[in-house]
Every structure is written in structure tokens, then in C-alpha cells.
Amino acid sequence: MVHFIFLDHLPGNRTSKELLTEVSPIFQQASYLITEGKVEEAYQQFSTLPEWFGDIVFRGGPGFLSPGYTSEATLYLEPGNYVMECYIKTSDGTFHWNLGMHVDFRVSNELSNAVAPENATIEIFITDEGLTVEGNPAPAVFLGGVHEMPAGNTAYFPVSLQPGDYAWISEQPVAQATYQIFTVGSD
């Protein structure tokens, strides 16, 4: 089963309890309605989200990950309450977070000793205009990536790709193409 981990910075002292009782049922019902082709009814569901939902900051996280693989993403998180959840749905349309695939954690004001990787070989920039890749995608197997986050934020992920054809992909809706194809040579 594929997983897609998402980090939500919750407003105030909220935890996954409020997220699961006040927000999740609305998303779940709207998702079922969209599947049934009842888009207007789904939009009505979304209009009932609590006011505080607009204060959640979706901070990113690892990208899609196939079974049997490990993904790593390093990003800066502001102090506060977070919930880590899986955004994938089961075959019947139930979000994984509704099946218990979520965990609360708190980021303190204490600074860590984490630093940006010193030997990053590629930088990927995503803007409203599209996707830009700078650097050499040297030999390394495509694993994960990072999820969307607020503009101006930075995240890092290691990747090892074997020789072959690959693509950097952004699911973010942008004005231009959201993918870039590249080839990793055998040298």
C-alpha cells in the first residue's frame, strides 16, 4: 500500500482529537460525495468546516512512497502543535488517518543541531510558473520527495537513482507543466 505523510501545524492548543472530530468527518463525507459525482453537495460539506481550519498550516512531509521503501525529508518546523497523518485512501474511500494512521507531536522553542545537507547536488524550485530543477541528478532509485508547504519554505530529501529515465513531479497546480523528465547515465 502506498502512503503519503502530511504534517499539519495546528492552531492554538488543538490536537488530532479536534482534527478527527471537527474536520475529518467533513472531508470524509465530501470525498464520498465527490466519488458519487455530487460535487456541489461536496462543496456544501466543505463550507461547514470550523473557522479554525483556515489557520492550519500544511507544512509538507515526505512524498508518495511505495511499499518496501524508506523516505526521508528534513524541514524546519515552527514551534507548536502538529499532527502527522497519512492522506491516502483505502479502496472504499476511507482516509488512512480515519483508520488511526496519525500521531500528534509538539515542536518546542529549543533549537536542534540540524543543518542543511552540505553536499546537495540538486535544487528543485516550485512556483506558480512551474517546476525548475538545478543541478545534476547524478546516479541514484526514485524514492519519495517532499509534500507541498508554504511558499518560501525549504525541505531536503536524499535520493539514490540507478541509470534510467525519471521525472521530477509536482502535484501542485501551476500555470506550466509540473514535471521534468531527465535521464541518469551509466557513468
Give the N-to-C terminal Cα separation: 34 Å
Biggest sheet strand line-up: 2-1-4-5
Proportion of residues in β-strands: 25-35%
How much is the average pLDDT? 80
Helix content: 10-25%
Main beta-sheet annotation:
4 strands, antiparallel
Q: What coarse outline follows from CA principal-axis ratios?
A: globular
Structural class: alpha+beta
How many domains is the backbone divided into?
2
Tell me which oligomeric state these chains represent. Answer: single chain
Contiguous runs where pLDDT drops below 50 for at least 5 residues: none
Helix-strand topology string: EHHEEEEEEEEE
What is the number of E strands?
Answer: 10
Total DSSP helices: 2
Radius of gyration: 18 Å
Task: Draw up the topology in text.
Blueprint: E1 5-10, H1 16-35, H2 39-46, E2 57-60, E3 74-75, E4 80-86, E5 102-107, E6 122-127, E7 130-135, E8 155-156, E9 164-169, E10 179-184
Helix pairs in contact: 1-2
Primary descriptors:
four-stranded antiparallel sheet, globular, 15% helix, 2 domains, alpha+beta, two-stranded antiparallel ribbon, 27% strand, 10 strands, 187 residues
What's the quick description here?
This protein is of the alpha+beta class and 187 residues long. The protein is built from two helices and ten strands; from the N terminus they run E-H-H-E-E-E-E-E-E-E-E-E.
